[in-house]
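Review box. Two proteins, two foldings.
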Amino acid sequence: MVPGTVGHRRSPLIAPLLLAGYLVAAPWIFFLAPLAILLLVSRPRAVREWLWVALALVAGVVLLRAPVDLADRTIRAAGMFFTGTYVTMALFGNRSLFIRCVVATSAAAAFTAGWFLALRLRFSTLRDAVAMHQWETYRTLMKGLPATPPPASDEVLTGTPLAELGYQLARSVEQVSQLFPAMIAMTAIAGGWLAWIWYHRISTRPIGAPPGLFRHFRFGDQMVWWLVATLAATLVPLPQGAHLTAKNLLAVALGLYAARGLAVLRTLLLNAPPFLVVVLCLIALPLLPLALSGCIVVGVADTWLDLRRRVPPPDGVSP
């Protein structure tokens, strides 16, 4: 991650909007826990610093008292492992925010896997818990769905108005349950990135370099081999466990390249009118799978073409 450059202005609305979207869609622990510990380590003085620490403590108490299943316990364990590694790397002066987030996420995955082995838990049990949680959410929103996803359900949906929708939702539930580790990994990386942004916005004496502009986001071109290797692993016959691991690693790689592609597009749209950017974002929402695919293609192409160098952004423009 490239540090921010003097003279570039940041939009005051982007960070709050990103944070609001994250808190609605992702587990809070990957954001609030690192933020609170970093603020405490920096010896908070201002009222806003203590307010955020108090908010994190209240959220932690609420989470601890809430009923949990295996998926929730897994997220909490991963969040604690992630926070410990992330804060340790920040205190020891690791300047690359991207490397810090990826290493902390990798450590959290390894420690969580060890936690599963120590408690003799199985990934299939976690997958079933995630699937049922997702299915219960669908049942809350749409009445008439069976108690369990078809075709495992004893209720026959054929001939009912919800028949085709029920089977489509069941397939999506299966995909979500299989890619649950990748989804948590991406939310952890995003949470660590947002925590560093807000830590430097809130703290009066922050440690480390401030976060860079998102449009400068890039990583080593050697990571394309991660993409190639995991893609190849999903296409060859492997044991089920190895195949699921490859699918999750591939999903994380695709997510990172999608973020890189989005950073490239943000650079290309710096001179575009704000109204046009808003319209493009609204158009992309109903076409989200297609939009993400386009970002992935742009991110991979940037590995060889360095698209941002071809269209240098003007100085002083808000990212």
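Next protein.
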Amino acid sequence: METRTIHVPGFTIGTAEDREGLTGVTVILAPKEGASAGVDVRGCAPGTRETDLLNPIKTVQQIHAVVLSGGSAFGLEADSGVMRYLSEKGIGFEVGDVRVPIVCGAVLFDLGIGDPHDFPDLWMGYEAAMKAGKEFPVGCYGAGTGATVGKLTGPDHAMKSGAGYAELTLESGLCVGAYMAVNACGEIYEGNEILAGALAEDEKTIISSHDLMLKGFKRILGGNTSIGCVMTNAKLTKAECTAISGMAHDGFARAIRPVHTTMDGDTVFTMASGEMEAPVDTVGYLAEETIRLAILDAIKTAEPMGGRPGWKSFHP
């Protein structure tokens, strides 16, 4: 098991997973007092929770967690477990005798691998929140447990993917980190090199979906969606967090082709703890780059699972 460490002040990450059923959940906890947040949803098949309140004109200004989950729409149940955990810890907005945490989330489709009847539930979400810390696993853990990539020609030709993390810190002290669960229709590129994607019948050769699309290929419908979260110690408004989430999607486009299709619900959240002043464009560009690097990390740390080979299968 490979692990990563988050150095963005105040944030912690936890995972819980079913590595037999091949599904899981990742929880990113904000500092106790909450964080400013925004979101940008691309593609035409999203599964999300509490994204409307991230609109800059809505009342709530702080959120307490972001949940990324497998299980398609079923996986949204895990968010309730995170709410229960945070409320028990006294975290959330005080409403009489009750603490109401604000928990936003998004799901990806992993029902085509492993056990389709297994999906993250309330207690898996609770467990992930309980395990949140500075160190966490990457690869086939958390929301990346059942992730695959390269499904233009169908899920039977996909390669195994996972979840990854990347972080950049400037001399000024500005820190930006990104966590990604990569479950894309397209291939994953590092520069012009294809790392993972749709396999030919020999299960060894990666087909270029880019070339197929240029020839008018009619895709085989399948479940996709890559989801992630950017964390920073910058001082940002909700509107600025939303803008940064949009810029972060450029990291998708630099690493995934094709991306944001009609069967993707690609979603990026941004959470900002507000500790230091920083130019929005700088934070946005760091977000774009860390998203790209986190996508590559997800591919290179994924194990072969569920009968599907991964990058490691060809790079032992």
